[in-house]
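Attaching the record inline, Q. Sequence:
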Amino acid sequence: MNSIKHQYVERDTGAVRHERPFGDWIVNYLYCRRRESAPMVYQLLGSQWFSGFLGWVNYDFPLGQNISGIRRFLKNCAIDFKECLDKPEEIDSARKVFERRIRYWQCRPMCQEESVIASPADARLLFGSFKENSALLLKGKFFDYEELIGAGKTRWLDAFRGGDFVICRLTPDKYHYNHTPVAGRVLDFYEHEGSYHSCNPGAVLTLATPYSKNRRTTTVIDTDVAGGSGVGLVAMIEVVALMIGEIAQRYSEDEYREPRGIEPGMFLRRGCPKSLFRPGSSTTVLLFQENRVEFSGDLLRNLHRFDVESRYSLGLGRPLVETDVKVRSTIGTRKPQRNGGRT
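Structure, as predicted:
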């Protein structure tokens, strides 16, 4: 699959862009189907030790003795120094590039309508549904539903059954803070132990349902409260990947100041920094209840384009195209409820 193109649509311009996933050749080599008969290899690939080692090699091993090496890295990744909160001379390692903070209140504006759902990250988005008669049906393609949420989480399994989801894939060059997509009160926060497999498109199509096998954290938010977004229950699932050693929860309502961990009972405002992936590529999955949200029309149109060469389209036998969006940009809105009621 390493010779197969992977394209996506850039939302801001409408242009079709080519992506060569980071480490593409080694990911395709390691996750090649011919190696499925080597369980020890897969056990090593998904181990915390191996992921941490690769993270150190790629993000803590010195890039050079001066800032010029970092500048070349930033230029190759199309990272804008002017967005960064820290001074250029302070961004002197690949890890600091990866964990950079930005002036999101200036360079990532957000619609102030309370019914709007904001993108949780600078990411490439796919949309899907668990509902059998939905045009977005993607059940069982990227994750196993019960495994993703947790077999013992009966309340949440029932709540999101038949609902919709968004997969937000962050590439290593992206700003790696997650922001809150909705406003509401935290009902539950829990972690699942798991593996550290790659979220490269090639690995996703080769390794069955990786997002529900990897280590992850889940935050369940009730938005049907005073000051909330009014879109029902929302689950925000942050999934680690190859070279991700930690998901640091650091919610802050005032830029990045006084960060806090996530606990049940907290009220989360929309668009605020919530967590930081450390470091590598990674994924955030949003789950919504049935008939509570409407996704943005341009994103849904891009999803089914035939003129974009997506590895997902090839692997699944149907058009499935990502759109590259900015954190805090609008990806959907509250769906009007009959008679003004809520489900």
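The first strand starts at residue 7 and ends at 10. The CA atoms of residues 217 and 239 lie 7 Å apart.

More tomorrow.
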